[in-house]
Hints:
This protein has helices at residues 3-6, 19-31, 48-60, 76-82, 100-112, 133-144, 164-168, 180-193, 200-210, 214-228, 234-240, 245-257, 261-273, 278-298, 307-316, 322-336, 347-357, 360-369, 399-402, 414-429, 433-440, 459-466, 468-482, 497-512; strands spanning 37-41, 89-93, 121-126, 150-156, 171-174, 443-448, 451-456, 488-493. The protein is an alpha/beta fold.
Amino acid sequence: MALYHTHRPQTFDSIIGQHHIIHTIQNQVIGGHPAHAYLFSGPRGIGKTTTARVLAKAVNCVNKNDTEANPCNNCVSCNEINAGMSIDVIEIDAASHTGVDNVRENIIDNAKFKPATSRYKVFIIDEVHMLSLSAFNALLKILEEPPGHVLFILATTELHKLPQTIQSRCQRFAFSRVSEATIIDTLRGIAKAENVAVDDSVLKRVAGKSEGCVRDAVSLLEQLIAAAGGAVTDESVSMVLPPSTSEEVTALLQSLFQKNAAACLSLIQRVSTEGIDIAIFCDEAITMLRTLLIYAYQKNISSEHDPRTIDWIESTQGSVSPIELVRLADMLSSRRGQVGTAPLAQLPLELLVIEWCDSQEARNEKENQGEEMLHRKPPIEAVEPRPTGAKASSPHPTILDQKNTGHSISSFSEADVRKAFDAAILAIEKESPSLVYILKSCRVEQVNNTSITVAVLSEFHRDRLADKRCKKQLQESFSDSLGTPGIELDFVVEKSEREVERINEITHLAAAFGGEVL
Ligand SMILES: [Zn+2]
């Protein structure tokens, strides 16, 4: 039996979320005065039918005394209802019984007779908005003057399709989506009961994916347990679960930062095939750009992001300048406005990709980048004539070409230092991916015998690299690569006048995004 059915709440107390509704209904049951007709509305899979069944049991339970609300789940009546065998609790799916004849036959005629063995005859009408107009009219008659032994529970996902006359005859309860925290707790309980170990990060992902729908969350967990065939870990989930929207958003931004149009376009294609709403996708991308921009100055990230996203946000520092973030956010906002009217929803986003990745500026940047080692254009002041001795015919500029100090004494060839950098990046890649971006964005300032001075983009980068363990690892890696023991690395923050100007400029722009610049 499916997990959702096995773990379906059987009492009011175990119903997930919806506390205000359950509390009211419990009080009515305790007082012995349930309403004659209830109308439960709200999205699918959040407990409307479950609540209806518990209510049907509670009003008919033989063991229950007047001071409690929960059915005993043990008496003849409770057992019959749990097994779906009770002749006094009639569940009708209005979606497949839309006609007036069905309503007359199944409800009106049936309601005239007293319940066979129970106190109440309970009609649970699911998806009630699907009934035809004449069926509604027939139903309305009996709702106006219901026999005392009848209880109606109507459920709908589309309240607005229900005639006002029907709505006004019922006690209405609007069920809401269940909070992520509550869904996580529920899933954890089910996993424990099923004796399966499930990572907390997986529970969070499943809860996020289910968008407040308990039924979806439980079904998804069930699929994951089946697929994993043991403990459900983050890795095993990645094989089954399509990436979340936030993962797709970060993947798109990453490719945009790298000006990789091909990767961007195939990602957009995938996103639209998966049925993700492009407008919402754009909104999330814009929100993420704002997060990056604020992080660039404040260095704090809201805890609402998952650890992967936080790691990614940290890793982007230095790979894209704040002014570029502003430019991208501007372009994205204006393309976002075209999504609703474009012949294809994804077209504006695709146009943005081309515009961004193939702009003259992007082409210049690519030319200047040459080696992947350098992810950015050096500040204008830094571009000075090549130091004498540098090979003018070198097909790609190298780190040493970029140095702006004319007086370094290098004991190593530029190729050697470049190799050392590559080796260090390779060594650190697995352990700490976020450092790779930082390393790629630095520039060799000066080489003096065994001491290498490296210019980094920000204090944050300097602190990361100068961290005791990291620095030691890097120095060892450089010593190995250069075949010289005792290489010492120094990190200095590079801030040219032009960059100070830029920062002042974007302070105003950042404020326009609701951010503050410290
Ligand atoms: Zn009972």
